[in-house]
Fold this protein.
Amino acid sequence: MKLEQAITKRIFDLCHEREISPNKLASMAGLPSATIRCIFYGRSKNPGSRTILDICEALDISIFDFFNDEIFKSKDIEGSY
């Protein structure tokens, strides 16, 4: 699995757990809805660190907690080059 796919899945799972729509997450994070949609639908190949941090702040989790998930512990995670 590519890193951006793992990030997308993590964001999707967090929203699902909290019953938050992509538009609601965008509003909470102060991001354009289009940014979140691009992440959710795989059009964003590399969500920026600032975007991920804004999402974490909106969901009230630390960046550590975001990445401290089983999906990121796989040795099969690959980056985009």
Remarks:
- The two ends are 14 Å apart (CA to CA).
